[in-house]
Write a structure and sequence with these properties.
Layout lengths: L25 H16 L4 E3 L9 E4 L11 E11 L3 E8 L2 E11 L1 E7 L5 E7 H14 L10 H20 L1
Antiparallel strand pairs: 1-2, 2-3, 3-6, 4-5, 6-7
């Protein structure tokens, strides 16, 4: 497994719309393994292939790893087929938008269809953190960052913080 570099906003590759995976094969499973290794190394709970510069519809998640458990999930070609009208707000962060945390409102419950690591069709009904994280990662597949859900002012402030952090990192 290989830890891959995670793209950071405003990298234009984060705006790419991912293409469907034609077949879950050895190459895709290697990508999945690399993505899980990368996500765990960065102490994240979700990662979309777009975030490592691969414009394919692949997501890995493990919302239990924050509790010291290991429950990796894989979503290939995920689609939300139903979303509740009820909304829920979660404080979100992102490996591609480091050190920025903001409240984002999304549907409270969803039903998603996707292919698993084995290539078999699956359905998931989710609420809470699982629903929020899956929607966040699926946004990445469509070139959307969580800061795109914020007001223009909050998004502008977040992007300025990122630019300042990048300058400080480059100048030491």
């Amino acid at each position: 497994m290989t830890i891959r570099p995670i793209l950071v906003a405003p990298d234009p590759r984060l705006k790419a719309v991912a293409k469907d995976v034609a077949k879950v094969d050895g190459e895709i499973r290697t990508l999945i393994d690399d993505m899980l290794e990368t996500m765990y190394d960065a102490d994240g709970i979700g990662l979309a292939a777009v975030q490592i510069g691969i414009a394919q519809r692949v997501i890995v998640m493990d919302i239990d790893q924050k509790d010291g458990k290991n429950n990796p999930r894989v979503f290939v070609n995920p689609k939300i087929v139903w979303a509740s009208e009820a909304l829920a707000t979660f404080e979100e962060g992102c490996l591609s938008v480091p050190e920025i945390w903001e409240d984002v409102e999304r549907p409270a419950r969803i039903r998603a269809e996707y292919l698993g690591r084995d290539g078999k069709q699956q359905t998931l009904e989710a609420d809470g953190l699982l629903a929020d994280c899956l929607q966040h990662e699926m946004d990445h597949l469509n070139g959307i960052l969580f800061i795109d859900h914020l007001s223009r002012l909050k998004r502008s402030i977040a992007l300025r913080k990122l630019a300042k952090a990048k300058r400080l990192k480059e100048t030491g």
